[in-house]
Amino acid sequence: MTTVDLYRTVRLIRRFEERAIAFVRSGEIVGGIHPYVGQEAIAAGVCAALRPDDVITSTHRGHGHVLAKGAAPARMLAELMGREGGLNKGRGGSMHAADFGLGILGANAIVGAAGSIATGAAWAYQRQGKDIVAVSFFGDGAMNEGMLLEAFNLAALWRVPVVFVCENNGYATTMPVGSAVAGSITGRARAFGMPAFTIDGQDAEKVLAATTAAVGRARSGKGPTFLECTTYRFDAHHTFEHRTRLTYRSTEELSTGRSRDPVEIQGARLAAEQRAAVDAEVEALLDAAAGIAMGSAHPDPAAALEFLYASPEVMR
Fold first, then answer.
1. Which of 90, 182, 308, 314 has the greatest CB tally within 10 Å of its CB?
2. Whole-angstrom Cα distance, residue 68 to residue 54?
3. 188-201 pLDDT, tens per residue?
4. Are strands 175-176 and 196-200 parallel, antiparallel or unpaired?
């Protein structure tokens, strides 16, 4: 993964999210989204360390993870719009995007739940003799969820090839991490006997280096690693905040948090003309994606119960 490739990914995620926010405001995306703006370097760096057959599980704030793992922006945007051309035919929406063919086992709206899914998938691959690694993304708020701690326990006990990635943006919705998590985040992970490291989550290259080491460790049979990626959410927890104007973060804090922009940090490593070329490429890709998504049909209400059951029978 080159410097240019990493920049392309962080830029793609940023501009995708900014366009998605605009579609929320215009009403094309109903119900709102959880923007990933400010955290792009984590998804870019982590997924750059993975093979195509490695798998990830994601969160309610998962667009960046899904794009970084290789999902087509047009299909992701169509999913947010609830269109048939979406990753899941418009039935998953923002918080449940999945593409098993790309190793995306699904975003998950239940805080901390995807850690168990990633651990189970990695254990299954291990039992099959495959050297596939699973990565689970979650936020700092998930560190108080029992199901995630249980996943840590089993992953460490069975030396499962999984990498746990905590995106610590300082808040669980509006709750500051210092008011919610006793001790340290990495200390909790180390208590289960796994290596745990704190990484600068605003720098895609630092995230890539740390994840590459963790993935190599997992693939060689040495078990799980925990990465706490410190970051900052530039936008709202959810776009509903654009209307409610919650004031749990001061103007000074927002200014300080936004001063280390992952797009600018990675972009500064490119020549000006290189960066301009990537920016133009991303805009053209997203222009095309928007056109494809907007042109995709809405699902037929008569098919609302399809894809809900393993049996081909549809309950009416």
1. 90
2. 13
3. 999 999 999 999 99
4. unpaired
